[in-house]
Amino acid sequence: MRSGRFRRPVCAVANRGFTLVELLVVIAIIGVLVALLLPAVQAARESARRSTCQNNLKQHVLSLHNFEDAYLQLPPMVSAGWTSAHATQEKFKGAIGFTFFTWLLPYIEQKPLYDASAMNVGTVVNGRTVYFTPIKAHLCPSEISAPKGIGTTTNASANTWATSNYAGNYYVLGNPSGTTVAQCREGQSRLASLVDGTSNTIVLAERYGICGNTGVVNSSGTNGNLWCDSNLNWRPVFCLNPSKEPALATGAYPPCAKFQQSPHWYNNCEYLRTQTPHPGGIIVAMADGSVKSIPHSIADAVWAAACDPTDGVPLTNWP
C-alpha cells in the first residue's frame, strides 16, 4: 500500500552564490561600460569649461564696447609703467601702471575694485589691492598653469600676483603708428578705425596665465600674463610688432604668430604668443562682439590677417 504522503522535491542547488568567474565577468562588464562612458563624461566637462571660457571673452569684448560708448575711444593697452611718465592723453591723464583690463572693471561688475585702484598709483605698492586680486572672469577652467588665478613672483616687492587667461590685440588696443614705446602703449583706436571691419578683426584671445620654464612670474619679466600690471613683459597683450616698438624688438616673435595648441605651460610655452588649452582650437573675441573658435589648422597668414585690422587681406577659410 502506497503512502499518502508526497515527497518534497529536493532543490538541486541550495543558496548558490556567485562563482569567482562570474564575479570577474561582472567586473569586466562594469569596466567596459565605464571605459565607454568616460570619454563622453570628459567631453561633456570640457564642453562646459569651453562654454565658460567663451562667456568670459564675450563679457570682456562687450565691456570694450561699453567703454568706447562712454569714452568715445578704446582703452589704452597700458597706462605707462610703474615709474615712467603718466599717460599723456587727457582722458587717461594721471593713470599709471595699469592695463586696459583695469579700465574695463566697472563694466564686468568689478567697480569696487576699480575704485580701489584710484587709477593714479605711482608704484606697485599703492596698487597691491588690485594687482593681487584674481577675477573669475579672467580664468579659463581648462587652464592649469596658475591655479585659482594666482602666479608666484620673484619680484622683491610682491609675493603673488593675479593672472589672466586672456589678452588683447596690440594692433587694436595699442597704437602701432606710434614712434616711441610710450606712444605705442597708449591706445588711440576706435572701432570705426578698424578698416578691415570689426567682424574681420580679432581683439581678444586666450593666453596662459604663466608661460615658461621658471614656473613663476619672473622678475626679469619673461613669462607672466597679469590682468592688471602694465610692465613691458607682464602685460596681457599679443601681436607685438618689433618694427614699431623698438625697445621690445630683441627676441620678439614675428607679429601675430599663430597661437599654440595645448602646449605644456612649463616646458614648451612661448610667452609672446597666444595659447589655448582647449583641444578644439583657440577661442577669440572679434571686434564686433562675436566669439569664435579657431582651429589650429587655420593658415598662419589667415591668423595674421585676422589680427591686423588695416592690412586689407581678406579672410579665407575663416570660421
From TrEMBL:
Positions of the DUF1559 domain: 42-299
**Which NCBIfam families does the protein's record reference?**
IV_pilin_GFxxxE, pre_pil_HX9DG
Lineage start: Bacteria, Pseudomonadati, Planctomycetota, Planctomycetia, Pirellulales
Cited Pfam families: N_methyl (PF07963), SBP_bac_10 (PF07596)
Q: Which PANTHER family match?
A: GENERAL SECRETION PATHWAY PROTEIN G (PTHR30093), TYPE II SECRETION SYSTEM PROTEIN H (PTHR30093:SF2)
Protein name as it appears in the record:
Putative major pilin subunit
Q: What domain of life?
A: Bacteria
